[in-house]
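Formate dehydrogenase beta chain
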Amino acid sequence: MVAKGDMIYAYAKDKETRDKGETGGAVTALLRHLLESKTVDAVYTVKKGVDIYDAQPVLITDPKDLIQTAGSIHCGTLLVTKQLAKCILKEAPEMKVGVVVKGCDAMAMYEMAKRGQINLDNVVMIGVNCGGTVKPVMARKMIKEKFGLDPDTVVKEEIDKGQFIVKTADGQHKGISMDELEEQGYGRRSNCRRCKVKVPRQADIACGNWGVIGDKAGNTTFVEVCSEKGALVLNKAIEAGAIGTEPAPAKGIEIRGKVENAMLKLGDKWREKYFNSMGTGTEKLEAIKKDTSKCIRCYACVENCPICYCNECSTKKAWLVQPGQIPPDFMFHMIRFVHVSDSCINCGQCEELCPMEIENSKYMHMIQSDLQGMFGYVPGVNMTMPVLALTKEPEERERLHSTGTDQIFKIFK
């Protein structure tokens, strides 16, 4: 029996899952057990599309289909949480779902739950350690220019021991230090470099290969049990014969901790580099105004942000932001900063999906970091409410509309 706080090695008992899955296939086996035991109605995760650079979200209800999701995709830059809420749970709010989450996905789960967008009681979160992801276009460029390989011949990629490693169809292996790549402008997304949630302990269990040593390396998953729900799921999977386990050795636990700490220090380094480059005070403001002046008001940042949930977006209010103006007045971005920055989880979607390549994530994360220092609120780690959480929008708008206006102060004629 495992309990919350335990650290174990786990692997799939089924040979096909073990062979096709990453590090022994424990995650795939757990997801299959969740479906077969009817603990969940569906599993929401990511599968490889046309190649290793194409990550596709998928909702699976048939346990047999889960094998297609086996393996990791470091060139997939999706945030599954917002898609889950918008595309699936909006139509089926009572559906019980198993979800594979990175650190930013898990943080988004909590922040969206606080805003009434997701019911965590109906979700089982299987967390996967994440050292960062690489944009598909950047990955192809990096493999061609730095590795000297045709990106279309690469059949597998991984980030391990501080290196980005690729394998080609003819069996070639090649790895280059991530530090070297990133100092030369390649490598992970900027938000991933700044991230300090490498082991997603907000999930029910956290899985990865860090700390798997000896003959178990590559064949077994390191699992940390992070909640009572996670312990229950694991114990049922063990009893059903879906996975095999053994206690993680002390040396493996020590190595895992060292890897995580090294990643956290790297996150501090990149935060200092990105944030200090902005200057101070007015310099920061002018730099942000200059970059955001490229905005074409496409609303990709709003539509894909897990913190944006308002029924009526204030950026669409004519008395706040002039309609039809391109680029919009800086008030458009100021409203975003005010509404989002206290709870920004640094997922990077606002920057990733911006067609004008505005560094939205950097600005939002920088403000969030300052606010965290002032008020102590850390987003996405538990159900503690954010500093600016005052009311639920629908109820408040109904109350205000009943008075004849949705403006509290009579400052507009």
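thats it. The radius of gyration is 22 Å. The mean pLDDT is 90. bye
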